[in-house]
Amino acid sequence: MGKESEMKMKEINGQINAKGMKFAVVVSRFNSFFTEQLLRGAVDCFLRHDGCSDDLTVVRVPGANESPVVAGKLADGGSYNAIVVLGAVIQGATPHADLINGTVARALANIAIKTDVPVINGIVCTQNLEQAIERSGTKQGNKGWDAVMTAIETVDVLRSL
The dihedral of CA 34, 35, 38, 40: what is its sign? Predict the structure, then answer.
């Protein structure tokens, strides 16, 4: 493509402003040491980007595996601009974590496609406790914060389409 054609293309970018957006955050109780940190990051991100605490609903579920059915119900209800799912699945001695991660990721993506509501997967999937600590608010940042940033931008892009 030449420079002239590049200059004429239309580009849509989402803004990072949550004002007027309504989000539900589904958070797993399992591995709460990590998920509570993820939730703190998610709430902080929403509020720092002009979101209102009255527009944020937190729904607690037992574990990551239970999050898709709840996220689906929330998305079907039509009350939220986005659903953010937070959890922490840490690999153990069996392949159980891999099964949960794959199943949940596919289910959340399918809900988003079916409902046209962004369902953001903020589940930390790690090989060990150190990685979980890093992704829940230390060296690698906070994946709860990142998930809400993704949700805000995605909602704004959808509004622009």
Answer: negative
Q: Which of these, 65, 86, 94, 93, lies nearest to 132 by C-alpha position? A: 86
Return the closest-CA partner of residue 63 out of 113, 100, 117.
100
CA distance 54 to 128: 36
Q: How far apart are CA 123 and CA 100, in angstroms?
A: 11
1 has pLDDT over 80: no
Q: Which domains does the chain have, with CATH numbers?
A: 18-154 (3.40.50.960)
User: What global pTM score does this model have?
Assistant: 0.91
What DSSP string describes 3-48? HHHHHH----------TT--EEEEEESTTHHHHHHHHHHHHHHHHH
**Structure tokens that stand for 109 in this block:** 């993506």
Marked catalytic residue, from 29, 48, 96, 114: 96
Q: Is 49 a catalytic residue?
A: no
